[in-house]
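Quick log. Single chain, no ligands specified.
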Amino acid sequence: MGVSGSGKTTVATRLAGALGRPFAEADDLHPAANVAKMAAGTPLTDEDRAPWLATVRDWLTSESRQGRAAVVTCSALRRVYRDVLREASGGVVFVQLDVDPERLAVRMRARKGHFMPPSLLQSQLDTLEPLGRDEDGVRVAAGGEADDVVAEALRRLGARAHGHAQ
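-> predicted structure:
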């Protein structure tokens, strides 16, 4: 989870590979109307997000019911959005990717062919509610090299699984 440009897709695909789990890109699950709205530079409303979050939750549930733990990217910026995802069967653990806003802006300007314009970054940063201490997950600094971020996420997830606070 994290704002646009935080490295969700890169980190999640590598995590899924390292863990041998199926992967889905939540951006691919957005209804066409949401994509068009964002591409036009208009932030989504909670009403826009509701069916999308339900689709992501349902994908996770489908994977769980087939006996597979899965990895999915999702901005999940607010706790209420994460609450929807937590409804998935099998449980959900979040990895929040934290990146300095200036680095995020550079990354977003460098992307080609992505529907999310850099002009929406501030809206995402304003919306972001970091993981609470009572939420199942870890926060990882994601401003460096992707392999280092993945290694740190795996380390923190492993420590979390063994009862060590992170």
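DSSP finds seven helices and four strands in the chain.
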